[in-house]
Specification:
Layout lengths: L12 E12 L2 E9 L8 E2 L2 E3 L6 H13 L2 E3 L10 E10 L10 E9 L12 E8 H11 L11 H18 L13 H12 L5 H10 L4 E8 L7 E6 L15
Parallel strand pairs: 1-7, 5-6
Antiparallel strand pairs: 1-2, 1-4, 2-3, 2-8, 6-7, 9-10
Helix pairs in contact: 2-3
């Protein structure tokens, strides 16, 4: 092996950032924390942190997810889904030279999806945390500009935008929308997930026909519920299909 001099290459750090999406009060929301330290002290940011020497990227993202939300990363191929499980997948890598003023930092962002989540508890260098509607954050970022104190820290507005678009496009052709639902759910509850993620209103009858007619998408549990009020509604669970055929195409708006 030829001699290798690590000092010949500039050092850089690796972080993971999390786009944690959930549906609260029929709106697509993401977890943001207010930074308690420099840089960008006082600005809202996505949760995340530095990757430790002894962990890979997936482990770092799962650790940050557990620390920030109490959720466990769920392997979609495993069953059953744990009560505190969340879908977690790698989103994209962000490595602009000046994205972090401290040093060269490359961030590997991850997307996490889970049903309606409780109020977050801040920790680490975050002195407060909240669930914020994604449209509110993205509208603020577009109106304020990246250097405004009202904008998300670092390049997190871009990461959030990419994560939201990933979720919006992926629920068209996969069963990912069920990750926003409890283990047993009604078609109406699933429809409200699609409406929240896409930001549209859907015809209830057409939606019911499409999701119940898509092979492997939904499986009746045999139970009913009145938790949404009105007449008892049939309960379903996610089926074994990972890809939807035909897909649930997003309406043009």
């Amino acid at each position: 092996m030829l001699p290798y001099d690590p000092s010949a290459f500039p050092p850089f750090a690796v972080t993971v950032d999390l786009v944690v999406l959930t549906v609260r009060s029929h709106a697509l929301c993401t977890l943001v924390v207010r930074r308690g330290e420099s840089p960008f002290q006082g600005r809202w940011a996505l949760p995340g942190g530095f990757v430790r020497d002894d962990e890979d990227l997936g482990a770092a993202a799962a650790r940050e997810l557990a620390e920030e939300t109490g959720l466990c990363a769920h392997d979609p191929s495993a069953a059953p889904v744990p009560d505190n499980g969340a879908h977690l997948e790698q989103l994209a890598t962000y490595g602009a030279p000046k994205r972090d003023p401290r040093m060269r930092v490359v961030s590997v962002a991850h997307l996490a999806l889970a049903p309606d989540l409780p109020a977050p508890r801040p920790g680490g260098d975050a002195n407060s945390a909240r669930w914020a509607p994604v449209e509110e954050l993205l509208d603020q970022a577009r109106a304020a500009g990246p250097d405004s104190p009202d904008a998300l820290a670092f390049d997190h507005a871009q990461i959030l935008s990419d994560g939201v678009e990933r979720a919006r496009s992926k629920i068209e052709y996969s069963s990912l929308a069920t990750a926003f639902c409890p283990p047993e759910f009604t078609v109406g509850e699933l429809r409200r997930v699609y409406e929240a993620v896409w930001g549209v209103s859907l015809d209830p009858r057409n939606f019911h026909r499409k999701v119940t007619g898509t092979p492997g998408f939904l499986v009746p549990t045999g139970g009913t519920t009145t938790r949404q009020g009105g007449r008892p509604a049939q309960l379903f669970r996610a089926g074994g299909a990972t890809l939807l055929n035909p897909p649930m195409l997003r309406p043009e708006v």
